[in-house]
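Fig. S4 source data, part A: sequence.
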Amino acid sequence: MNKSVVGIGWRGKRRGSARGKNEGRRPGRSAPTGVVGVEQNVVELDSRVAMIQALIPLGLKAVNELLQEEVVRLAGERYSREGGIHGYARWGRQQGSVYLADQKVTVPVPRVRDIRRGQEVPLSTYAGLQDARRADDAALRKVLKGLSCRDYESCVDPVAETFGLSASSLSRRFKRASAKKLQELSERDLSKYDVVGLFMDGKTFGDDEMVIALGVTMKGEKVVLGFVQTATENELVCTQFLRGLVERGLNVSKGVLCVIDGGKGLRKAVAKVFAGQAAVQRCHWHKRENVVRYLPPGRQAEFRRKLQNGYQQPTYEKAKAALKKVRGELATINRSAVASLDEGFEETLTLHRLGLFGELGTSFKTTNCIENLNALVGRRTYKIAYWRNSEQKHRWLATAVLEIEPRLRKVRGHRHLPRLRAALQNMLKIRRTEAA
């Protein structure tokens, strides 16, 4: 057997070392017999099974070695009356199959029988290697990384005696695994997240749009709260979506900053569901582009730069003054551009009014956080030319965002989030007092 396989197949033996007088003995020979001794090896077996599944094609030999090792531990050495568990005996072998990586491979499986009870003793090693969930996860990752189901058979790892996997088999596995991901995301308990920031935006899937909510916790971590399928970001759908998040435990009573692109449906939904508990920051990039699109092509770059300079001013007073000056210049050119700038103007300066533009502007002045998430989702779904149904869209999106989420970095300036929470509470308290 290859030395690298032997190193994994036998515990306590150095790779490539010469076999001494007692070195060939399997683990567990000298241990007391009994079921307790078997249970103590379960955790170790799990980790070793995971390692064995990575050895292709040498893993075939290693699998046989691992199965024989468990037989020795249960029934003792062949032709020996010592070792093993009392009453357990070898009972021939049968043909079986195990998963190596995401392929199903035929192997001879030794059998052990409990003579006293007259029943088969299952091998925990064999059960671990037969676990299809590992194969489903492997298929999930391959499909997400752009390997289409049709191309799968020509791309799988070459292993002798493999059954292989057809495109339909891979599709079924992906469907099973992605359905679990959708259930996991849909049933996620949101009460455990102390959310201080909330980004919302739509991602196009065929003829539909998926509005995604991305939360930012007090530690600066990004967590996908959920999504809803809709034709447009209309008020009714977005309102029901946000209420659903609240019902699942989302707590905004301490104050939350909602960063949106300016869509009226989303804005009205935030006001209706989070009344008195949320402040809105309108995306600078969307506002700037909405304004300049009214201008002649030759003037767009000029006013894009002026608007950008205005929004980059460090304080509310300076930013407002600079933008009012730009507004005056726009008034002589295009009144529609002025109306676009005026719409939601104060909400584009929310971070300035909170006094935290310098500390948190990079992360919260635009919807870039969720735009980046959408771009990563797009990399995992771009190969799908035709969406068959709504369920397929939901499964793919849930699978993609849960795969991406652990890789998302904390927001820049996350150390200042406690100050943001305090500033939000003060602002919202003033608003409630004025309303009263």
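Fig. S4 source data, part B ends here. Residues 239 and 272 are 7 Å apart (CA to CA).
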